[in-house]
Amino acid sequence: MNQDINGVWNSWNENISFNYKSLYKINSEEELQEVVRNSEKIRVFGNKQSSSDIVSGASTLVDIKTYNKILSFNDSEKTVTVQSGVILGDLLEAIEAKGWCIPCLPDINTITIGGALTTGTHGTSGKLLSEYMTECKIILADGSLKEITEKDKLIHAVRVSLGVLGVLSEITFKCEDIYTLHVKEGPENDSDWLPKIKERLKKHDFLRILWLPHTDKGYVIIGDKIAADTEIQENLGPKFLKHRRKASKILYKYTHIFPWITAIANKLLYRGFFSATKEHKGSLYQATVTKSRGSTLELAEWTIGLDKFPTVFEELKTEINKWSNKSFIHIPMDVRFIYKDTSWLSYAYEEDIVTMGCVSRNAATADTYEAFKSIEKIFLKYGGKPHWGKRFTAKDAELSKIYDKWEDFKVLRKELDPNNKFLNPYLAELFNEKLTTNETT
Ligand SMILES: Cc1cc2nc3c(=O)[nH]c(=O)nc-3n(C[C@H](O)[C@H](O)[C@H](O)COP(=O)(O)OP(=O)(O)OC[C@H]3O[C@@H](n4cnc5c(N)ncnc54)[C@H](O)[C@@H]3O)c2cc1C
């Protein structure tokens, strides 16, 4: 294994930095077990693309990206087993080559499987990615290995576990046959798309709305499964659409100083990049997942029960449209839909939910982005839950009210990691644990 000593760890967008004493790159399960066993405080990181401070901040770090083999396929069960550092895009290409898919995908392919699972990463019109994990091996704080299958109750705690119960080693996913999605996209007034959500969820296989704050519009993306050879009228829109992110970056450049510029920028971006319709087809991965991103950004995302969403949406819209506050929000706010599951720290624990993203395209000035505060205040008021990998300030006091299984998770965490080996300062605060001074880096 490879060890680097006394360096500085920076997150993807360079908003979070920590000193470390040792950073390991490992290649085998045995090496991973050895590092975990011999470390006092340890965090494992993937592609560092989380906006919340859950990744680093321990004296020992493991870069899991070198632990990235696709280990085996089981053709009769349609399962694939991988090491947890595999990049999502690599996994998806390998299973597409088998004629399989994972039927609900996030809009990013550069993340690691370990990072994606532990933070509750999700797409739309399906379940969290972690719900497609049927088995895993996890390395506990003492370095021992535990195998967990769908038959074990522990799987409900481990599926979304912020990396605090142990380190995910090997993961098995249940796949489905690949399908072709016929995608139609176009703008709609808020008064049109909002009341149609439930009807569209029933009717279509894919639904995502890129809400465009300060324009009264949403850009609605609908997908239906079709036979692969069905002919469609392909329309990818004007060529300049690919420059949307670059144009946003320029238009939002000074919005941290003059937030109101956002309202004007959004209207221009709507006219330039969201007013055309599009039609295309492809696999879920090829047709809906962004493959390259030119610039960094900072994210928050909140989730709320499907039935409460219209109320929360209207309140948020009223709030951000008040020129008396500074909560102008960059385009788009990604609205997606997740079906209920049984994972303790899942946003969709026992209820269908809506997720709503909030982006700051100026990553460096995200601390002054009022929108993050407004969205948190409104969603928390209605019992909404924050995305674990994104920015939020709620801690134990708030989280214990919104997660039915919060206390159970805390008890289990303490049982599996009595010396808080996997907690960094941020996670210690989240779980209301005190770290002694020499436990922090
Ligand atoms: C541009 C962009 C788009 C995004 N799109 C989406 C989206 O569509 N849907 C969505 O839900 N989220 C989305 N996210 C959030 C993203 O999926 C999560 O933040 C994810 O965790 C990032 O993966 P990573 O490999 O970078 O993990 P990191 O940020 O490096 O790590 C995340 C967490 O996972 C833990 N971890 C990593 N590997 C392991 C392991 N093997 N065992 C135990 N713990 C481990 C780390 O300790 C850390 O706590 C997006 C983020 C960005 C920047």
From TrEMBL:
The keyword Oxidoreductase applies. One of its GO terms (molecular function) is D-arabinono-1,4-lactone oxidase activity. Keywords: FAD, Flavoprotein, Oxidoreductase. One of its GO terms (cellular component) is membrane. PROSITE patterns: FAD_PCMH. Residues 16-178 form the FAD-binding PCMH-type domain. InterPro entries: ALO_C, FAD-bd_PCMH, FAD-bd_PCMH-like_sf, FAD-bd_PCMH_sub1, FAD-bd_PCMH_sub2, FAD_lactone_oxidase-like, Oxid_FAD_bind_N, Vanillyl_alc_oxidase_C-sub2. Pfam families: ALO, FAD_binding_4. The keyword Flavoprotein applies. This is D-arabinono-14-lactone oxidase. The lineage of its organism: Bacteria, Pseudomonadati, Bacteroidota, Flavobacteriia, Flavobacteriales.
